[in-house]
Design goal:
Blueprint (H helix, E strand, L loop, with lengths): L1 E8 L4 H11 L6 E5 L2 E5 L18 E9 L2 E8 L8 H15 L17 H5 L4 H8 L4 H20 L20
Antiparallel strand pairs: 1-5, 2-3, 3-4, 4-5
Helix pairs in contact: 4-5
Length: about 180
């Protein structure tokens, strides 16, 4: 048995993911057999020879299932046999594309704050009450939360406006150790 796909699905709603997987997703090849946590995809006419070695005697099928931990749903696909399932690559690409389309990543923008008008705790309390609660219990919580907020803003700005990294390794010997 070999793991051939692992995805994080950004939703805590495992029931919706499982239902979509079992009813809406069409692999395009093979027979879909529903299981409690997903489905098995098999070839109806696939038979293995009686005298085949154990590793060769495994069914040519895929096992697709989901589980949930800490508000995220996970999906794995395992192949039972050594040889690839027919159109395996296309099935995995279709599954990845469709699950990303149906369950897209969503990162809500933190509220804009003005720390000259209010504390970080007051500014974020309505949007992130538990975060504020736990940072208030820390010895340097206000400073730490301000830094976390700053890093979050910096990361988002980098995603919105990607920049090429500065060159830190120089190609010419003469460049070494010389200030710009």
């Amino acid at each position: 048995m070999r793991e051939i796909l692992y995805l994080e699905v950004p939703t805590p709603d495992i029931e919706t993911v499982r239902s979509w997987l079992q009813t809406d997703f069409e692999p395009g090849n093979g027979e879909k057999v529903l299981t409690s946590e997903g489905f098995r995809l098999k070839i109806p006419s696939a038979k293995t020879p009686a005298g085949a070695a154990l590793s060769e005697n495994l069914p040519v099928e895929l096992s697709v299932f989901v589980w949930s931990v800490q508000r995220t749903t996970y999906l794995k696909v395992f192949r039972w046999a050594e040889q690839p399932f027919p159109s395996e690559g296309q099935i995995l690409q279709r599954l990845t594309k469709e699950i990303r389309s149906r369950f897209p990543h969503h990162y809500p923008e933190p509220p804009a704050i003005d720390l000259s008008q209010e504390s970080i705790f007051a500014a974020l309390a309505s949007a992130y009450p538990l975060t504020v609660k736990y940072f208030q219990k820390m010895p340097n919580g206000e400073y730490d939360l301000t830094r976390a907020y700053w890093w979050e803003q910096r990361w988002r700005e980098g995603v919105r406006n990607p920049q090429s990294p500065r060159q830190v390794v120089f190609s010419n010997q003469g460049d070494r150790g010389q200030g710009s």
